[in-house]
Every structure is written in C-alpha cells, then in structure tokens.
C-alpha cells in the first residue's frame, strides 16, 4: 500500500510486527529512550511527510510512560508533516476511571470488538462448546455475554458480586445454571485476577465440568499469575503459566488499518474475523 507508515511504540513490538507482516509492510524506524532525568525521548528515523501514519501503542505495562511515549510520537509525526496520524491502542489507558469523569472524543474514533475472535476461538478450541454456558463475572458484563450466548445459541449466566473495596470481592451469587456444563467466563479486563479466580471456584462448586475464562485485556498485575496457576481453569501453555493462551488479534487490527487507509468501512470487523 502506498503512502502508509506503521510505527511501534514500546508496549507491543511483537503485535506491531505481526500487523506490519500481514499488510506486507516494514515497520517504520523509531528510537525511544529516556534522558538522565527520565524524560521520554522519541526519534522518528525516516521521513513521514505526506504519509498516512499508524502508531501501535497500548496503555499496559508502564502506563504513564507508554501514554507519554505515544503522545510524543504523535507530535513528532505531526510536526514532520505527516498527512494523517492514527493511534492504534489495543488497551485504552485510564478506561477504568469512573464513567462520570469520561468525556467524548472530538476526533474520529473506531472501537474494535473482540467478539468475532472470541467466537472463533471457542468453536475451534472447546469441543463441548455446544453444551456450555457463557458466564459474566459481574452484572456489568451481562450485555457482552448475552450477545455471545445468542451467537452460539447457548445459555448464559452471571455472577452478582459485592465488593468491600477495589480489587477485593466480598460475596458472589451465581444467577443461572452451569451444572454438568462447560462454563466459559467472559470479561473485558483481568488485573489482579481475584474476581475471575473466585468466579471459577464458584462455578466448579455449582457443578460445572470445566471452566474457561476469556479476557480481552489481560493486565495480570501483582499476584495474578500465581492465582491463575492455582485456580480451577483448564490448562494450556504459555511462559510462566500453563493456563493462559493468547488469541491473536493482529489480523483484526491490520484489516482495520487497511480499511481506514483506503477509506472503507470498518463495521465489517464487528461481526467477522478476517482471514
């Protein structure tokens, strides 16, 4: 594709490379470093004049550093006369703040959904998916699980939880039936994983034969990995934890970039996973 550049920030170099490979492009040259006073420095190593620039950078890991790095990269490309600069943000920073503190974007924004990739993974990896129950670990995710359950034509359930304070659950009540079924927990974010691991225990005690958890944003901070290792989840393989598998979304992000660059609609991606 002509007149397009893709740059990677520090948060997701592997994902950025996969996106570039799918589009048949080379990643743009960029150097990120810190001055002795810990200020972030970004140097764009090639011309972006008149180019349609995409910067892949997330709000995970060192959130504040990554966010500042993204802003500096955007500014560097703008003052270097890029035609357009688009940030590709797999995990949007500060999205956990109270809803009343959120404003509205005054720039074009596309929110991409993981649901098509989740449905594809379930059908390809869980043999008993036709006898499963999709479960939300809290009432706030009810809309998410009902949509997935409807697409799979299976039942859904939710867990009502009462918190004593942030990241600490006091009590859980299961609303729905998982007895003699595979239970698939679906949530948007897993931070310390206390909620999702307690939910797995609740589902097993309610008669679930197996428990899977599908999470769009695995933050995994603090005791998360040790909790997952000892929780009632089906095992898979990944470094440091044999119960975690990564679902590749590079094809979705690459297709979104291609469609945006060519002025096409991205709504196709709301219900399909590109090949």
Automatic annotation (TrEMBL):
Cofactor requirements of the protein: Mg(2+)
CDD domains (alphabetical): PRTases_typeI
GO molecular function term, any single one: ATP binding
Listed GO CC annotations: cytoplasm; ribose phosphate diphosphokinase complex
Pfam family, one: Pribosyl_synth
Reaction equations catalysed: D-ribose 5-phosphate + ATP = 5-phospho-alpha-D-ribose 1-diphosphate + AMP + H(+)
Domain Ribose-phosphate pyrophosphokinase N-terminal: 4-103
EC identifiers of the protein: 2.7.6.1
Enzyme class: transferase
Record keyword Metal-binding present: yes
GO terms under biological process: 5-phosphoribose 1-diphosphate biosynthetic process; purine nucleotide biosynthetic process
Top-level division of the source organism's lineage: Eukaryota
InterPro entries: Pribosyltran_N (IPR029099), PRTase-like (IPR029057), PRTase_dom (IPR000836), Rib-P_diPkinase (IPR005946)
This protein's UniProt keywords: ATP-binding, Kinase, Magnesium, Metal-binding, Nucleotide biosynthesis, Nucleotide-binding, Transferase
Family designation: Belongs to the ribose-phosphate pyrophosphokinase family.
Stated name of the protein: ribose-phosphate diphosphokinase
């Amino acid at each position: 594709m002509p007149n397009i550049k893709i740059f990677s920030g520090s948060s997701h170099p592997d994902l950025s490379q996969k996106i570039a490979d799918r589009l048949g492009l080379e990643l743009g040259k960029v150097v990120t470093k810190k001055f002795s006073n810990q200020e972030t420095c970004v140097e764009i190593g090639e011309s972006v004049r008149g180019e349609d620039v995409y910067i892949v950078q997330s709000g995970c890991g060192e959130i504040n550093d990554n966010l500042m790095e993204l802003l500096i990269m955007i500014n560097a490309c703008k003052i270097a006369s890029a035609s357009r600069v688009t940030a590709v943000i797999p995990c949007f920073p500060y999205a956990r703040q109270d809803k009343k503190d959120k404003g509205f974007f005054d720039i074009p924004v596309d929110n991409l959904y993981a649901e098509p990739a989740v449905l594809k993974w379930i059908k390809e990896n869980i043999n008993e998916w036709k006898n499963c129950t999709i479960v939300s670990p809290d009432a706030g995710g009810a809309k998410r699980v009902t949509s997935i359950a409807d697409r799979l034509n299976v039942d859904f359930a939710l867990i009502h939880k009462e918190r004593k304070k942030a990241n600490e659950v006091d009590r859980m009540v299961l609303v729905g039936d998982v007895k003699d079924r595979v239970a698939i927990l679906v949530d948007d974010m897993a931070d310390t994983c206390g909620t999702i691991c307690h939910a797995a225990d609740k589902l097993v005690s309610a008669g679930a034969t197996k428990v899977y958890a599908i999470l769009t944003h695995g933050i995994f901070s603090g005791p998360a990995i040790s909790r997952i290792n000892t929780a009632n989840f089906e095992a898979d393989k990944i470094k440091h934890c044999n119960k975690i598998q990564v679902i590749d979304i590079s094809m979705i992000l690459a297709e979104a970039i291609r469609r945006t660059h060519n002025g096409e609609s991205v709504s196709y991606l709301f219900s399909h996973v590109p090949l």
